[in-house]
């Protein structure tokens, strides 16, 4: 995803900065990074959402119930054969309420980062012509 984003960025700014005497460090931090911010934000939000909802990774690596992630904790609380209710037995309504609360951080991140997500898909660089 980032490779395609970087391929769309114009190199005219870099060349102009080199002509003006900027070194590679200044070109990177003052020109390239501000242009890359929307793409990096989109990737960061995607990584957060996939990590927050990850189930298989923690299921493989974690063995103590104290260190369970939210997804594993909800699975352990679920009644029936699938979850086994290893931590405690709760009703289905309580489990659905807990799942609804687990989604709140993802919704909040999306709500506050929606503008960056949209600007990450369409980048205006300021070059005309």
Topology readout:
Elements: H1 2-8, H2 12-19, H3 24-52, H4 56-61, H5 70-77, H6 92-121
Helix pairs in contact: 2-3, 3-6, 5-6
Explain how this protein is built.
This protein has 129 residues and is mainly α. Helix content is 68%, strand content 0%. The protein has six helices and no strands. It has helices at residues 2-8, 12-19, 24-52, 56-61, 70-77, 92-121. Helix 3 packs antiparallel against helix 6. The longest helix is centred in the last third of the chain and has 30 residues, at 92-121. The protein is elongated. 5% of the residues are buried. The mean pLDDT is 81. Keywords: Cell membrane, Membrane, Transmembrane, Transmembrane helix, Transport. Residues 1-113 form the ABC transmembrane type-1 domain.
Please state roughly what percent of the residues sit in beta strands, choosing from under 5%, 5-15%, 15-25%, 25-35%, 35-45% or over 45%.
under 5%
N-C termini distance:
26 Å
Q: Based on CA inertia axes, which overall geometry fits?
A: elongated
Find the count of extended strands (DSSP E, 2+ residues): 0
Structure classification: mainly alpha
Tally of DSSP helical segments: 6
What kind of sheet is the major sheet? none
State the helical fraction.
55-70%
The radius of gyration computed from the alpha-carbon positions, rounded to a whole number of angstroms, is 22 Å
Estimate the mean pLDDT confidence.
81
Order of helices and strands: HHHHHH
């Amino acid at each position: 995803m980032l490779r395609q984003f970087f391929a769309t960025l114009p190199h005219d700014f870099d060349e102009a900065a080199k002509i003006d005497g900027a070194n590679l460090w200044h070109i990177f931090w003052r020109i390239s990074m501000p242009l890359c911010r929307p793409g990096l934000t989109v990737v960061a939000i995607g990584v957060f959402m996939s990590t927050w909802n990850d189930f298989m990774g923690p299921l493989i690596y974690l063995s103590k119930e104290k260190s369970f992630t939210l997804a594993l904790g909800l699975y352990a609380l679920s009644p029936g054969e699938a979850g086994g209710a290893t931590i405690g037995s709760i009703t289905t309504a309580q489990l659905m309420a807990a799942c609804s609360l687990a989604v709140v951080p993802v919704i909040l991140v999306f709500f506050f980062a929606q503008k960056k997500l949209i600007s990450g898909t369409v980048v205006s660089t300021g070059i005309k012509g």
